[in-house]
Automatic annotation (TrEMBL), chain A:
Keywords assigned: Repeat, WD repeat
Protein name: WD40 repeat domain-containing protein
Biological classification of the source: Bacteria, Pseudomonadati, Pseudomonadota, Alphaproteobacteria, Caulobacterales
SUPFAM superfamilies with a match to the protein in the record: WD40 repeat-like
Domain of life: Bacteria
UniProtKB/TrEMBL annotation, chain B:
Domain CobW C-terminal: start-end pairs: 284-378
Keywords linked to the UniProt accession: Chaperone, Hydrolase, Nucleotide-binding
Top-level taxonomy: Bacteria, Pseudomonadati, Pseudomonadota, Alphaproteobacteria, Caulobacterales
Biased composition regions of type Basic and acidic residues, renumbered to the chain: 243-259, 269-279
Protein name (Swiss-Prot/TrEMBL): GTP-binding protein
Region annotation Disordered: where it falls in the sequence: 236-279
Length: 330, 380
């Protein structure tokens, strides 16, 4: 397999993504942000580590949260811009919404809401327990915060307020919302997902995983939800009004010798990529059942994976800092 | 986790406990400021107490979570899981991690985190739980809060601090009480938290492959690692782990209360812990069981499983080495509350006397029932 880019950056790859301009960007644990196509690197968090990253809501560049208490926006054309700087904070989750131009960043029990339109103004949502996952609804009206014993729901722009709690016992570590805004799904400390149908807060238990789920991604126009945490990529159908209720998940390309550590689907297509704990990466076109290993060579576990908007490019990285950019010739 | 090859690639974590005012902050300041050739990441419960600016100090919330797995005492530190995951991505920036707990914290959840969470377990290992004790205020702390006892009972090593503030007699009494609560812990005396920083690490107290110390553990003395570096006033042999474990206890199962005077036996090793006899506590105590007859492996496994399932909340720590009938390798186990780890380790040597020994530290232990259960496992 030949790659458009193949490079060793020597630090754990925390996140990989494509921005709206199809710029391939990775965030590294040593505080660097790298624009992979042009091999341009910025020290976004000098002397510190990046813990989380998302594409900026303008569609240009990347927003990173660090263990230096800073949230930083980095584009290819300017030096890193600091959005938040809270002494002692440890930002391990960040979410944005393009419609409302809002950014949320979590450190411990506090979630900071930063209004990108009215720069400098930030609100704090306090929780009884730490928040480890954040997601806005599609319009940016509400913010969902994964925490202990459920997900807290806040109106993004109202302050002060008392949040609603979507209750479910246990520690919820990650969170995703279906693109139609009808379902919220969390990954848990236990080897399970939990979901809520938001119209009536009805619970959906989605279990049966052999390991912890670290990666969840809605794809194919929100009709499918892919997760890591098994030998194959687990795909839950969200084709009907009830979501996955009463439906069974499918496990794609289960290989007993390895575990899927990270998944990424194409936003519009039934194309799904999976990174494995043995360093390999495969891509599947789910309607044709064609599966192709784009990385056959084994190595350290894949930690970051992204599929571009047109599904033509796949960017991934591993624990040791290896980064690969695959471009489809089809 | 007993695989030494894999352990060497994991980052050691030392948990530092101790009641309010015991000297944890002083010790952490020393760890962060002194030039000892090691770099530590320190997870503290309160920012600001540490007077040193260091990018590897992380504030934690001490959030204890219950796991949804039906295990009633299975609590973990959720904040710790996230912080450790973040730190482990910056591997190479530090050699080891120290987790400070608040003075009022039960060490159980923090220790259990290292056995329950698969990601934490994959990248780190719990090296030891170390408790600091203020010699001067020990008695009043004991009266004020039962967590003081639990911290000591849970610990692998105890730093008996502020020894300069008490008389030798008072100090001996405090040490005797500590030994009464925990016969397995190493006790190090210190002034102003002045211990050898390096000796705090590389204890491997939860590592099944290095649990031989329990075999030679003197019922009335501490179990110490080869490089524990403690400063006893008597001749301390560092070679006693290689010695034959014989305590002269042939043919019967007993524990420390059986009335023998063990110190008159030939222990085959030079040091004598008998200078200070333990003062026992009526709530938390230890029970040490041993036998030189092989045990039935199936029966023992069943017994320990049932025991921990029923009494796990009260059993703080357990360790043991078992001679299983018909098995060439020794069965080694350790438990934190209900979480049990056991595996077959190094084979018995021909020259070695085979034996079984199990030590339980916990609240309200029923010694008679424990001994009866253990004896019922002897292969007939």
């Amino acid at each position: 397999m030949t790659f458009a880019v193949q490079k060793d950056y020597g630090a754990y790859v925390v996140s990989s993504l494509f921005d709206a301009a199809d710029e391939a960007i990775v965030a590294l644990s040593d505080g660097r942000v790298v624009f992979v196509d042009v091999d341009m690197s910025f020290d976004a968090h000098p002397g510190a580590g990046i813990l989380c990253a998302v594409a900026h809501p303008t569609g240009v560049g990347i927003v990173t949260g660090g263990d230096d208490g800073r949230v930083v926006w980095t584009t290819k054309d300017s030096q890193p811009i600091e959005l938040l700087n809270i002494k002692g904070a440890w930002f391990d989750s960040v979410a944005v919404n393009a419609e409302a131009m809002l950014l949320a960043a979590a450190s411990g029990k506090k979630v900071y809401i930063y209004d990108l339109a009215k720069k400098g103004e930030s609100k704090i949502f306090e929780h009884p327990n730490s928040v480890s996952g954040l997601v806005f609804d599609p319009k940016g009206r509400k913010l969902y915060c994964a925490s202990y014993n459920g997900a807290y729901v806040w109106f993004s722009r109202i302050h002060p307020q008392k949040p609603q709690l979507l209750k479910w016992a246990g520690s919820h570590t990650g969170i995703a919302i279906s693109p139609d805004g009808k379902f919220v799904v969390t990954s848990m400390q236990e080897n399970a997902l939990h979901g809520w149908r938001l119209s009536d807060s009805k619970d959906m238990r989605m279990g049966g995983y052999p390991t912890k789920i670290k990666s969840i991604d809605f794809f194919a126009k929100g009709k499918l939800l892919a997760t890591s945490g098994a030998n194959g990529a687990v795909v839950w159908p969200f084709l009907k009004a009830n979501g996955p209720m009463g439906e069974e998940a499918s496990e794609i390309n289960a290989d007993e010798s390895s575990m899927v550590t990270v998944v990424a689907g194409a936003p519009e297509d039934t194309v799904l990529a999976a990174g494995l704990d043995d360093g390999r990466v495969w891509v599947a076109e789910l309607q044709s059942t064609g599966i192709e290993y784009i990385q056959r060579e084994k190595g350290s576990p894949i930690t970051a994976l992204a599929v571009s908007g047109d599904a033509a490019r796949i960017l991934f990285g591993n624990e040791d800092g290896g980064v690969w950019l695959f471009e489809s010739t089809h | 986790m007993a695989d030494t090859a894999s352990i060497s690639s994991k980052t050691p974590v030392t948990v530092l406990t101790g009641y309010l005012g015991a000297g944890k902050t002083t010790l952490l300041n020393r760890i962060l400021s002194e030039n000892h050739g090691q770099k530590y990441a320190v997870i503290v419960n309160e920012f600001g107490e540490i007077g040193i600016d260091n990018d590897l100090i992380v504030g934690a919330d001490e959030e204890v979570f219950e796991m949804n797995n039906g295990c009633v005492c299975c609590t973990v530190r959720g904040d710790l899981i996230r912080i450790l995951q973040g730190l482990m991505r910056r591997k190479g920036k530090f050699d080891a991690i120290i987790v400070e707990t608040t003075g009022l914290a039960d060490p159980g959840p923090v220790a259990q985190t290292f056995f329950v969470d698969e990601d934490v377990k994959a990248k780190t290992y719990l090296d030891s739980v170390t408790a600091l004790v203020d010699a001067k205020h020990f008695k009043s702390a004991l009266d004020a809060d039962r967590v003081v006892k639990e911290q000591i009972a849970f610990a692998d090593q105890v730093i008996l601090n502020k020894t300069d503030l008490v008389t030798p007699e008072e100090l001996n009494e405090v040490e005797a009480r500590i030994r009464g609560l925990n016969p397995l812990a190493t006790i190090q005396r210190a002034e102003r938290s002045g211990v050898d920083i390096k000796s705090l690490l590389n204890q491997h107290r939860f590592d099944l492959s290095k649990m031989d110390g329990i075999a030679n553990h003197d019922d009335h003395g501490p179990d110490c690692a080869d490089d524990c570096g403690h400063d006893y006033h008597y001749d301390h042999s560092h070679h006693h782990h290689d010695h034959n474990p014989a305590h002269g206890e042939a043919g019967h199962v007993h524990d420390e209360h059986c009335g023998h005077d063990h110190h008159h036996h030939d222990h085959g090793h030079a040091h004598d812990h008998g200078h200070i006899n333990p003062i026992h506590d009526n709530e938390i105590r230890s029970v040490s069981l041993s036998s030189d007859k092989p045990l039935d492996g199936v029966r023992f496994t069943k017994w320990i499983d049932q025991l921990l399932a029923a009494k796990g909340p009260d059993i703080l720590r357990a360790k043991g080495i078992i001679d299983v009938a018909g098995e060439d390798k020794r069965l080694v186990f350790q438990a934190v509350h209900m979480i049990l780890e056991g595996e077959l380790q190094a084979p018995w040597k021909d020259s070695e006397n085979r034996f079984s020994r199990a030590v339980f530290i916990g609240r309200h232990l029923d010694e008679v029932a424990l001994r009866a259960g253990f004896e019922a496992c002897i292969k007939v």
